[in-house]
Amino acid sequence: MPRVRHRYVCPLRWADLDLLGHVNNVRYVDYLQEARLDLLRAHREASGATGPGDDPADGIIVIRHEVTYLAPLGFRLRPVLIECWVTRVRHGSFSMSYEVFHEAADGTRTVYLRATTLLAPYRLDEERPRRLSEEERAALSAYVEPADPVERPEPFRVARTPEGHYPVHVRFSDVDVYRHVNNVVYFEYFQEARIRLFSALGRGLTDVPPIQVVVAQADVDYLAPILLRAEPYDCWTQIARVGNRSLTVESEILDDERVLARARVALVFFDGASQRAVEPPAAYRERLLSAVPGAGEASSAPAGRP
């Protein structure tokens, strides 16, 4: 069967950039959402067939994102291209993959990101998951390119420390048409929580130059909806691993003791001048190592590992 991928032309916005002049890691997830919606819209317009989310009471929710950041993307007037396709269809869920890239005249690509998303149909009026209809399964199957299934890993628990706490205040603009906080905004919450933790761990250090990091991998599990309310939710973040040039951060968002979302994010220390991974200042690395749960048992990566 010939490969069928949907191509979406995605304009860039100046506001998408971070302090390094790269498209921020959060904004890529927004691009993926736009490409996914464009695929479903294009199929409906071309075939007139019923697809996921056609009934106003039916929606599609994200269960898990796995996002791999491969190269920095700076602002340009030329849109970036996104190919997306379906990798698996089950009765109660389906998964999609994406590639974000620019393509030269000879067909060669500069790939900035690859990602996979696990999604599920959802009954909005009853606030519960539902099964895909045969018509929906047929619509999705036109784009199937089989791949390994997206599976949730074993859950982890994050240590509750003062420096690892970030109160999540939901803004009205964070909420989507489903009356839930949009899946993209979770990446913003986890980013804010990381920044808060990094700042706390660096407090009091002298003669340490500004430290820059870029996201290499972000895996987020959506366990229950976050809703608009006046009271903040609790986000707890910990340093899970420290390597020579990278670290792994784990986070949870909770409502009281109920876990609503989890994230595991790998970051790389980055030098903006050389555009390369670098080792962090020794004093800051020691602070990071001391923050790893069970820090007395050495949590660093072998030499030579990024």
UniProtKB/TrEMBL annotation:
Entry-linked CDD domains:
4HBT (cd00586)
Q: Which SUPFAM superfamilies match?
A: Thioesterase/thiol ester dehydrase-isomerase (SSF54637)
Membrane-spanning ranges: none
Gene3D superfamilies tied to this protein: Hotdog Thioesterase
Alphabetical list of InterPro entries matching this protein:
4-hydroxybenzoyl-CoA_TE, HotDog_dom_sf
Q: What is this protein called?
A: Acyl-CoA thioesterase
Record's Pfam families? Answer: 4HBT_2 (PF13279)
